[in-house]
Amino acid sequence: MKTLCISLLLLMTLPATANSSLPATRHIAVQGTAELTTTPDIAVISMEVTSMQKSALEAKADVDKRVNQLLDGLDDFAVKTDDVTASNLLTEPEYIYTDGNQQQLVGYRANRSLKLKLTNLEQLNQLLDYALSVRIDEVQDIQLQSSKADELRKQVTAMAAENAKTNGKALANAFDAKLGRIYSINSNSQRQRGGYEMIQVTGARLNASDAAPGRYLQATVSFNSTVDAVFELSVN
User: Fold this and answer.
1) 3 state SS of 139
2) Using CA atoms, how far apart are residues 11 and 159, in angstroms rounded to an integer?
3) Strands (E), the chain
4) Integer Cα distance of 29 and 73 in angstroms
5) For residues 184 and 181, what is the distance between their CA atoms, to the nearest angstrom?
6) How far apart are CA 25 and CA 230, in angstroms?
7) Do the Cβ atoms of 90 and 112 come closer than 8 Å?
């Protein structure tokens, strides 16, 4: 009966580990999962400035002016100088096609991308309003993060490993076996992107029935981990 039980156990675990290296002895392959959710305290904001002018020099000057205006006002926000990055400025000619299918130069377009990290989310709405006031054309993305990300990743991985051991013991006990030494471990941890439910270039607010004016929907950041483990089995 014990031999039959072990054979059934191995068959049950085979699909999850068919492509992995397994020991020649009795074994069990299990998976553990875990997730932690926290409130973000950092926002990484990506913006873009674009200008269309008659000459490349005029387009560049306009973009530089607006970027400098943004940078000059960041002292009022929880943004460190080291947490601001800007791409190189790019310029290119802009053409249209006439009715005769001929190319016609209409001007030059310059654009520059910016990324900054805000460490006080209560200032997010104010910062977006300020950016738009100095003619930052587009708020491309807002990524919400946690300053405790490294600590949470380690914690959630440990939780997934413990879950794998618990699952392995329970399954082994169900077949009158005991969990033996660990043979192999494979983990995969990742952070799920957090974001506000509503965010637009214009900084649009929620309806009054949803929240107080000037506030955005609360968001969370989730950390999850999956641990695949192979244990040897001992039979009573």
Assistant:
1) strand
2) 27
3) 27-38, 42-53, 84-86, 90-97, 103-118, 138-145, 177-192, 221-235
4) 56
5) 9
6) 11
7) yes
Per-residue pLDDT of 12-56, as tens digits, reads 444 444 445 788 888 999 999 999 999 999 999 999 999 999 999
The tokens describing 123, both together, are 């200032």
What is the DSSP code (8-state) at residue 38?
A: E
Check the CA dihedral 140-141-147-149 and report its sign: negative
Residue whose structure tokens are 């387009």:
59
Name the pTM for this structure: 0.70
What are the distances in angstroms from CA 99 to CA 96, 103, 104? Answer: 10, 10, 11
The CA-based angle 140-204-69, given to 5 degrees, is 55
Identify the bridge partners of residue 42 per DSSP, sorted by sequence position. 145
| The token pair that represents 147 in the structure block | 């300053």
Token digits of residue 10:
């191995």
Nearest to 227 by CA among 177, 173, 156: 156
Instruction: Answer yes or no: are the C-beta atoms of 133 and 45 closer than 8 Å.
Output: no
